[in-house]
Amino acid sequence: MAAASEPEPIQPELVRLVVLARTGDRAAFGRLIEEHLGPARRLALAAVGQAMDADEAVQEAAVAAWLRLDALHEPAAFRGWFMRIVWRKALDRRRSVRSWFARFQSAPVDGPPLDFAASDPSPDAQLMSRELALAIAQVVQALPRKLRDPFLMAASGDHRYEEIALVLRIPVGTVKWRVSEARRLIRMKLDRLGHGDPR
Amino acid sequence: MTTDRDHLDEAIDIVARRLIRVDDDSRLAAQIVASLPERRYWLAGLTWRLAAIAALVGASALVLQRSNEGSTEVLRTGEQVLSAANAVPFAGLVLGVAPHPAQRTQIVRSTFVEPPSDLRRTPFDHERALSSLDLAPLAEDALPDDGFLSVEPLSIDDLPLASELLSLPE
Q1: Cα A52–A128–A188 angle (5° rounding)?
Q2: How would you label A145-177 residue by residue, b for 16+ Cβ within 10 Å and e otherwise?
Q3: What are the pLDDT digits (tens) for A4-58?
Q4: Hey, which of A30, A86, A154, B136 would disulfide with A61, CB 3.0 to 4.6 Å?
């Protein structure tokens, strides 16, 4: 987990780009989006579960941020502000009926498409069996949304606990508790499934 | 926590990261920037919207004002009604009627008679009053055998009787 509690340093380049984007500089705004595109896509994917829906949510969020850029009073807070818009757009998609049908029709029967052996050459992944990976994925996806959302955000390594709290509009202590509770539930269910020993 | 548990935690982290993994898409940022609307155009659109809303509000206010004026026409005077162009038939009808003096009746006020303030109830001895009368005794032969009895008119000078006193209840 990369979530930390240290205050985020002010980035002069970020502030400069935000100021330029406010004046209508599309190139500056494009650079802002490009720098935050990866975390934004992962954040949206944590909400909707489908890459296509996540990219559409990020695109809608970028347009909304472009149009509401004047409402951002503090340029240094662009990242948290933009992530919040992304999360809201992703939640809108998650709640939509069309997205629900798409997930229902494309959901695999035996779990998420995880191919560790072929695509992940890391030693830890090599040690993990495909059966355990599928079991963990199923248990994570079966978590309540209140626990799964902050757990996946923290697991991405893109967001600090403060930023997760800002996006979810809950206290930082609640974020930490939910992440810890999610991990405890995952381990407990894995134990019941007979995956207490990963090796 | 055992070593096995640590490995399980690592496995959980790896799978969680895999669940939200996204492939690099260099075209997506350019695609997003290309889809951005023109901010000036958006502001202009907002201006047009505000202008349309203002026009709508103004028109509504005008309609309301006119409807209020229409409601006050009921309170116009007779001269204004007669002078109106659409009141010509009614005006002719009114002018064709000869003037007739109004018959006025006087207002009758109800009055009542107040009793005399000096009316006092005084006790009176009627027997002594009768004995005080100066009456001549009537003889038997004075009565005629037939015919009508004629009695001389009685003259009472100081009979202290009054109709008001006799009519009063005890």
Answers
A1: 85
A2: eebbbbbbbbbbebbbbbbbbbbbeeebeebbe
A3: 455 566 788 899 999 999 988 999 999 999 999 999 999 999 999 888 999 999 9
A4: A86
Digit-coded pLDDT (tens) for B44-99: 566 778 888 888 998 888 888 887 765 555 555 556 655 655 555 655 655 666 66
Q: In the numeric block, which tokens belong to residue B138?
A: 């009537």
Is there a contact between A23 and A180 (Cβ–Cβ < 8 Å)? no
Which strand (E) or helix (H) includes residue B18? helix B3-19
Dihedral sign of CA atoms A19, A22, A28, A32 in order: positive
Phi and psi angles of residue A165, each rounded to the nearest 5 degrees, phi first: -65, -40
Measured distance CA(A142)–CA(A154) in Å, rounded? 17
Task: Name which of A48, A56, A70, A128 to mutate to probe chain B: the one with the most chain B Cβ atoms within 10 A of its Cβ.
Answer: A128
Q: Give long-range contacts, CB 8 A cutoff, 24+ apart: B133-136.
A: B133/B159
How many other C-beta atoms are found inside a 10 Å radius of the C-beta of residue B146? 4
The span from the CA of A60 to the CA of B109, in Å, is: 90
Q: Compute the CA torsion angle A159, A160, A166, A170 (nearest 10 deg).
A: 120
Q: Where are the alpha helices (DSSP H) in A49-144?
A: 51-67, 78-95, 97-106, 116-119, 123-127, 130-141
Going by C-beta distance under 8 Å and a sequence separation of 6 or more, which residues neighbour residue B153? none
Is B1 part of the contact surface with chain A (CB cutoff 8 Å)? no
A54/B39 touch (CB, cutoff 8 Å), yes or no: no
Q: Which two tokens stand for residue B105?
A: 């009746």
Name the residue in chain A with its Cα closest to that of B46. A67
Is the overall model pTM greater than 0.80, yes or no? no
Contact check, Cβ <8 Å, A26/B18:
no
Q: Tell me, yes or no, if B43 comes closer than 8 A to chain A by beta carbon.
A: no
**Residue A8 gets which letter from DSSP?**
P
